[in-house]
Known about the structure:
There is one protein chain. The chain has 29 helices and 36 strands. By secondary structure, the protein is α+β, with helices and mostly antiparallel strands.
Amino acid sequence: MSAKKLQTKIFGGSSSSSSNLKPTPDTGLTINIPKPPETTPLTQSQTKSTQRTNGDAHSPAAAVQSYQNRLAAELKSEYESVERYRLLQDERKERHWKKWGPYLSERQWATVREDYSANGDAWSHFPHSQARSRAFRWGEDGLAGISDNRLSVCFSLALWNGVDPILKERLFGVTGHEGNHGEDVKELYYYLDSTPTHSYMKYLYKYPQRPYPYEQLVRENANRSRDVNEYEILDTDAFEDDRYWDVFVEYAKDEDTPNAISIRITAYNRGPDFATLHIIPQLLFPNTWSWSHPRLEKPGLQLVAPGAVAVKHPNIRTNLYCLPSPPPVGPDTSEDIEEDNVYPDMLFTENETNYERLYGGQNESAYAKDAFHDHIIPSHHPATKVGCEQPTRGLENGNGAQTGRTFVNPLNKGTKVGAHYTFRDVPPNGGCVVVRCKLTPAKPDEDAGITDEELFDTTVEERREEADEFYRNLAVGPLTDDIRSVMRQALAGMLWSKQYYKFIQTEWLAGDSAQPPPPPGRKYIRNREWKHLHIEDVLSMPDKWEYPFFAAWDTAFHCIPLAMVDPAFAKKQLDLLTREWYMKPDGQIPAYEWNFSDVNPPVHAWAVFRVFKIERKLHGKEDIKFLERVFQKLLLNFTWWVNRKDQGGHNVFEGGFLGLDNIGAFNRSEPLPTGGVLRQADGTAWMAFFCLNMLSMALELAKHNSVYEDIASKFFEHFIFIADAMTYKPDPDNELSLWNEEEGFYFDAIQWGNYAQQLPVRSLVGLIPLYATLVLEPSTINRFPGFKKRMEWFIENRPEMANRNMANMKGRGKGDRRLLALCDKDRLVKILERMLDEEEFFSDYGIRSLSLYHKDNPYSMTVHGQKYEVAYWPGDSKSGMFGGNSNWRGPIWLATNFLLIESLQRFSQYYGNDLEVECPTNSGDFMPLNKVAEEIQHRIIHIFARDIDGRRATNGGSTKLDRDPYFRDYVWFYEFFHGNDGRGLGASHQTGCHARHYFDEQLTMSEGGDPLATPYTPYTPYSAISPSPSMLHTLEDISPDAL
């Protein structure tokens, strides 16, 4: 394509000489490379490449129409969307649409898997400084990358701005030792779009034109105390004067060929001056051959034509084509443009460790992993080494660096290839360059999209339009464009956060035969007892940089929004964690790689049943086999909890830290400095929650197999015993309680024999008992006479248990429903009085994890001369407990907020409008519980949605993020949020619960709920609103139990 034509496509043929063009509002998800006109004539070869062999939609005569139109005409009334059709094809195994996806990690360095140290210090054993030169053993990472689902071959991006000391080929951040609040990525990148089959994906990386401040970020963060904010990339001058590149990476699969992927990289110069950019798309094989004797056969890459690379691998059939690029263009179409294309310099090397650079040793090959850095960046050349046996061809410069050495393979073959495009003098203020590559098993004469740029761009734009169609159908109701955009980015982040994860414990612990043996003491550091683990799967990650490993309870929450777009993938994730190569034989589910034996809250059963119901509600499919299969494994997990975490047999569960890192005065995963045993209100409540979800699943399965009716009765009785244990008896003559009547709240307690002391900390621990709530419909009870008989017998014959520490089961609620809950009406109202108090838990942005009360009234206890204290910290943690990178002493966590919202919806099912509570407390305004749930939900949405001043709370008041037209439409989804002002904190790309809240918001709107109020608008008391009948019936339609 000529430069003039490219300029016309990008900038619309404007003859304006203005060079300071800005995008229009709310267009942040669009790259301005318009789709070529559909009337573009197709050659015979093009027609051949776009048709399929079955169905009228793929006939040559129809090839001039978009695939979307052809498929709609073929399927007629059965047509939902192109993407939904692809999901069905994948599920039926007709097409393997998910074979390729964003399965490449953002960080493989400094992970537990790569740690072979004697002391278990993963951060120091494999630092970022070695990542470019040292081969990974258990995975790969890269910038904006993809791979196949077995990580056989990986594609990613490298960049160079002409001044950095290294190529930018992976994201940088400070480690757990370097950050004042633990590890933290120090880059600006966004997951902008993805379909569930990854037929279309979009990623944005913002690359400074100034030298990237690696050392400054490490030094400043290391020098800061835990009492101050983290030092971020925007705090440096790296982006001053807008001297940076917006680099968009798009992936688009061919309409009916999952293994053919068009890759378009579009970079914009946002700075005020002409600038040069090097773009190096890379393809490599993970190193699988350097670890064992005998060596495995090495795969190969070979240049077979200009820009064309053949891929030789036993499991992958593909080729890489790197097309010539037009020269840089700017917005001024009146300027003359040179017509010379930019051709890539194809570079080859081996993905093998550079022992010479790292250790002064001998390399296995003349060409090492970091060869492209040496080849492209003169200052990266290694210094001359006297006596080095490594071949050196050439002279040295005045600094001792070798200037004539060949770092890349002149034979154009290896296990890593880079296509080096150099774009010089890119115009300022929006000047643009484009790189096009294609991964495909086809040859150029079989796929015209390899050489025809118009057809190439048509493929990309059609996949984008199909993604638009998919999300347009998903987000229904009166939502603003901004909220739809944020929801789409949240779901895109969920889909981009898939990663291939490999961990084979026996191999990891023993070491590799071709490598020096690990230190003997290493086997005792962590995960020794998990010898059965054999993981080689694509898994959903909490954050592919900060947490590039699965975490059990994060996975459970991820699967809720994933079920909305891809229930098959969500179900597989939940199923995997209960399979025998994950779950221990005793029933324990692995937590996360730093300590698989740690204990996460038991939310797996909740997620399984929730996913089952979501698929039934949204897609009309009732997957009983999935439900039954996982239920059977969860019986083992429930037994493990009972046997291992209820040591005294009192149904009071210690649990450990339960994911709430620093919420207590003591580290809850270690023995108490006071002695005694910690009786955890949240641990016991989590088990009651687990029990009720197992009861719900058993009743669902009993519809198909009566055997499960008896199992449902078992879980009903077990729930009663757990509920009774919230007031427990260490012996027949002594009774201790986790409920404090005076405070109207649940607290943990330390028990020493027959004596206990409550720890009066007003935290999420006291709210979690609300989760254990289940409403039984009369139709359900009457359908199972055996269950009904057993339940009524228990109520009549065990009143001392059935009427204590829980709702009155004799009472009937709205619609003659029965309520199983830890909290009766009186306790519920007392807890909500605190929870909805803006001077305690109720923030403008959701429910705080610790009451604001503790800002002026910290709780403390002195033990053996050491003071232990819990104070309100609304932002980052001021403690190093659990690494100090998360904080449960005040911030807002969306996962726990979501469960609170669900609980209120269930209580509302039972009480209806007969129970109204003051919301906010002391406001004088009373509302039913479903409206309270909506109010919390709306406040959470306001973290991300623009307020009336155009600002997003999550941006923390940053003018750059809120006002700049190249930032304001993009959103990060943080791990947790400041308890007072809603700004984002912790890991910046945790999208699971955020996507879930947006889904609930749009579902509420579609079912007749209140529209989302604009943030910071004058408060309208509920008493002044006259709800429509549809609003009053909304809850019955959307509640968790109705799905």
